[in-house]
Amino acid sequence: MPTTCQHTAHRGQILVIFAAATVLLIAFLAAAVDVGYLLSQRRGVQNAADAAALAVAHAVHSGVTNTATLEQIAAYYVEENGYDATPEITFSPDMKQVRVTVNAEVPKFFVGLVYPGDWKVGARAAASLEPVPFDAALLALNPSSGGIKTSGNTGIEVTGGSVMSNYTIETSGSTSIIADQQVNANDGFRESGASRIEGGMGTNPYAPEVPDPLKDKIQPPTMPPFPNNPVPNVGGSPQQCMEYPQPWGVNIYTVPAGTYSGGGGNCLTIQNVQSGNTLEFAHGNYRFNNGAGISIGGGNNGPIVLRGGNYTFNGGPGISVGGSTPDFRMERGNYAFLNGARLSIGGSANGNVLGGGTFYFSGAGSGILPGGSNSVTLNPGTYIFDGGHGMVFSGSSHLTFNPGHYEFWFRNGANLSFSGSSTIRLNGDVYVKMYFYDGSSLLTSGSTHFNLPSGEYYFGGNPPRDTCKLENSGSTWIGGRNIFLFFGPGCYLHTSGSAAFAFTAPTTSIYPGYHPGVFMYAHPDNTETFQWNGTTSMLSEGTVYLPSAKLTMGGASNGKVLRGQIIVNSMQTGGSTRLGLEYQQYVDTSIPAVFLIE
């Protein structure tokens, strides 16, 4: 072939190859534009998904649970990031995690010439509510009122922990709130006067709310119904009222069982039982009708013993013990004091023993009424007071518990009351359950010192309101180990004078729904005010939990009040109160924080 023809052929082939390469290059450039834009939109859609997931998680933390509302929130944040797309949201069963998926159409520039299908990008994000530990020693739960308020010359000092109000912290006068860790509020600090707020690790007037750490960890106890009279009303053949002892010249005088009737006064009078002799009521059924009663007078030096059985006193004086009787015993049995009949113990008798079993008191004027300088020793049993006085210790009388388990029931204004210099003594391991219903209370006053038995003290039950209280006044000291105090709606604690507390909380479960470490708990429907007033001080270990009730401290309260945690609806201090609070963790407290986890 001629050379000229060969060159011409080569030039034609190169032009064809160049044209084909140019078309291919243009195609690659067009694809690069579309793919690059697609990738850039992938990043944008991911940002939209992230923002939507965080927003929905924050809404859930704020209490939003309606699915339609949460979907609207997610769609809003997707749109705010520039995408017209409907996000899909899913939740974990406990609502602690949310997953948002966003799929968005992307415009096609050149690729549509060769690819007619969908051109989309998708992204998925997951956010989680993760608790961040927050060592709250003092926590005011209410997010809309109350908060923590201080005035006068008060001071709150927290060692080892933090102070938190889900509402405001308001200080005035020359008050101070100081904590080793943080002092935070959710709705700001309101400071006036010479007050100061200091946190060793900082302060924050607009911190996130701290959820109630015990809301799902403790439940109110189920309050049992008040018992009816459990003592059988049995008697026997009629017996004659008389004075004992008769001059029989024997060592043991026996009062026969049976039914005694009188005209509203003492039926059996007992006095001058000589040393070495015993007067006893044989074990059996005794019934005292029409106000008949037993009077134990002076000059008794020998034991007087009720040997158990069933005893019913219907009206009248019941049993009256006076003088200096050294040994009066009611052995284990069933004793009913009805229509105001009572057990009165006076004088200087020091050997009075109630031997357990069941004691039931009802009606105005009924109860166990020691006075003077005598003492009463209880044995394990059930003691029921339906109206009347209840158990009232006055003067320098003493109540001693022998080892064992006890139940006490108080209703219709019957109280357990101590005044003067009366005291409680524990003779070994004792555990009690005390129930105070319908206006009944535990009252201490005077200059008394009480070491309460270990156990459970229930003031009122569920609605209706019961208006029961634990009241401590004067210069009394009341304390005890392994103590649980429950206050139903309408019931409260009130201290004044120079009263003091020293309780230690149970560390094991005492009823289904109890959280170990709580020694004072108010029902969620209880909105009363709990008051530490006067020159009150307290040294207790455990948690005070009043989720809907207000705690106030006034007067000249002082001292290290608590080693543990105070979790209340709101708190207020005044006067010259000094609250010392040493943080000890009984329940975890935390601040929920939202994190992207995917």
TrEMBL record:
Domain Putative Flp pilus-assembly TadG-like N-terminal stretches: 12-57
Transmembrane annotation, as ranges: 12-33
Pfam families: Tad
UniProtKB keywords: Membrane, Transmembrane, Transmembrane helix
The protein, known as: Putative Flp pilus-assembly TadG-like N-terminal domain-containing protein
Species assigned in the record: Sphaerobacter thermophilus (strain ATCC 49802 / DSM 20745 / KCCM 41009 / NCIMB 13125 / S 6022)
